[in-house]
Write a structure and sequence with these properties.
Helix content: 25-40%
Oligomer: single chain
Strand content: 15-25%
Distance between the termini: 91 Å
Radius of gyration: 27 Å
Number of strands: 6
Order of helices and strands: HHEHEEEHEE
Strand order of the largest sheet: 3-2-4-5
Number of helices: 4
Shape: elongated
Structural class: alpha+beta
Length: about 190
């Protein structure tokens, strides 16, 4: 080759950008999908925490509640989750009392499906922090749980070992404000 042809080949840059873009595109797409999944899960988790906090706060301000009032409070949880669907959202509210030995027992429980998932008079089926146990006191426990399905879950589950659903859950504990124990007049 003559020196002029080598100089033209050396200065030719038209296809380099396209080649580099083709090489980096798969990595950028995977990065974009990963960011979308992580931010979606973080947004859902933040809303689950807000739901648990808000519901415990509302119930802790009451002296007595009914299942109808609790259903209204659960509807608030669905409103907090907007614009995301609340189909997989389950909210539980319960009153737990500590005896002289700081042993916890369930006074009542009610969840957004209309059931009493925790047995009255039994120990709560979750581990309560030691810092909230005080003799002869009561707390309101709120647990919000959501099975979150990332938008691209189906694409990668066949290639990578991971769950298609991520269970997001948060618990919140508050002491009653107007009474020693919040009562539920018609809980199952």
């Amino acid at each position: 080759m003559c020196p002029a042809a080598l100089r033209r080949l050396w200065q030719e840059r038209h296809a380099i950008a396209a080649t580099e873009f083709a090489m980096i595109l798969p990595f950028m797409i995977i990065l974009l999908i990963g960011m979308a999944e992580i931010t979606g899960a973080m947004n859902h988790d933040r809303k689950i925490s807000r739901i648990s906090n808000s519901i415990a706060d509302l119930v802790a301000q009451a002296q007595t509640v009914t299942t109808g009032e609790l259903d209204g409070v659960f509807n608030l949880g669905e409103k907090i989750l907007v614009p995301y669907p609340a189909d997989e959202l389950v909210i539980l509210i319960a009153s737990v009392t500590f005896d002289n030995n700081e042993d916890a027992t369930v006074d009542w429980s009610y969840d957004s499906t209309g059931n009493a998932p925790w047995t009255e008079g039994a120990a709560p089926p979750i581990t309560l922090p030691d810092t909230i146990a005080a003799p002869n006191t009561s707390i309101v426990v709120s647990v919000a749980t959501l099975d979150y399905e990332p938008p691209f879950a189906g694409i990668f589950t066949s290639y990578f070992d991971r769950d298609a659903l991520i269970e997001l859950s948060d618990s919140y504990y508050l002491r009653p404000r107007l009474t020693n124990t919040v009562q539920c007049s018609n809980c199952p």
